[in-house]
Amino acid sequence: MDQYLVPPGSDLNLNQWDPNDKSLFPISKKEGKLLLKDLNKEMERLQELLFAQGKHKVLIVLQAMDTGGKDGTIRHVFEGVNPQGVKVASFKVPTPVELAHDYLWRVHKRTPAKGEIVIFNRSHYEDVLVVRVHKLVPEEIWSRRYQHIRAFEKLLTDEGTTILKFYLHIDREEQKKRLQSRLDDPQKNWKFSRGDLKERALWDRYQSAYQDALRETSTDYAPWYVIPANRKWYRNLVISTIIIDKLKSLQMAFPKSEDSLEDITIE
Ligand code: AMP
Ligand code: MG
Predict the structure, then answer these.
(1) What is the pTM of this model?
(2) Is 245 a residue whose pLDDT tops 90?
(3) Which atom in ligand 1 lies closest to the alpha carbon of residue 195?
(4) Residue 136 DSSP one-character state
(5) Closest CA relative to residue 164, chosen from 220, 119, 204, 222
(6) In a 3-state reduction of DSSP, which class is residue 86?
(7) Residue 198 C-alpha from the chain's centroid
(8) Which residue's CA is the nearest one to ligand 1's atom 7?
(9) 264 CB under 6 A from ligand 1?
């Protein structure tokens, strides 16, 4: 899986990452969808264990260009897990109250508690992406945020949170197709926003902002993965596999009952 990891301190060039790559699972879409069902079962099992043990906290960050597939990833990768132990936190344009605080205030409140998996649908990274591209704050302010973010994520991991960050990598052509289908398919019309076209016109500036953000904040304790995401089924398989590997590495076990249960008889 390290093939998609952004090595800490490396000089990342997103143009060199193929959004169509499928080398890890050189199979058909049909086979891929079947395989995901097995992975979903494994995820369900591990998530139940995480919840039962109530020891580990897991934070998953999803970032992507518009139409990149954040919602679909959440739907498919976490299909079947117990909603009691998995939460999604979506970060929209900050409210006036949120803007009156520092940019990590709204984020820290939504990080996982023990036994929980929290998925960030967008995140604190918006504060070095959209905020930078639209010049919502001057460079001297956004540029020092990488340092804050590294420190914030270090704090979280020091205190027992496991962090995985995924950038869903699509290309401009694929975005065009997906926007077009939002226009053409009445069931997808609700997802279309004229604003998305304005953002699309800023594609190159977003790519530079992503490139810098990933390069500056991929650390050994909170790594970034660049996920080839033009194929949805492949994207789901890779993300699911990375999360499962990570959960397995936590070596979780069901907690022991309070005392011996052998003498108990239920009438
Ligand atoms: P969506 O995810 O499509 O519902 O859109 C949410 C919108 O909120 C996107 O256009 C984001 O760029 C925007 N957004 C999220 N966080 C911030 C932020 N910190 N500052 C400005 N805009 C943001
Ligand atoms: Mg949108």
Answers:
(1) 0.97
(2) yes
(3) 10
(4) S
(5) 222
(6) strand
(7) 24
(8) 92
(9) no
Ligand whose nearest atom lies closest to the CA of 193? 2
Domains annotated on the chain, with CATH: 2-250 (3.40.50.300)
* pLDDT, position 252: 96
Residue whose tokens read 């992507």: 64
Residue 196 alpha carbon, nearest atom of ligand 1? 10
Helix axes 232-249, 70-77, angle to 10 degrees: 60
Residue 261 confidence (pLDDT) above 90: no
Element (H, E) at 59: strand 57-64
pLDDT in tens, 58-107: 999 999 999 999 999 999 999 999 999 999 999 999 999 999 999 999 99
Closest CA to 50 of 255, 242, 221, 241: 255
Ligand 1 pocket, residue 92 CB under 6 Å: yes
91 lines ligand 1 (CB under 6 A): yes
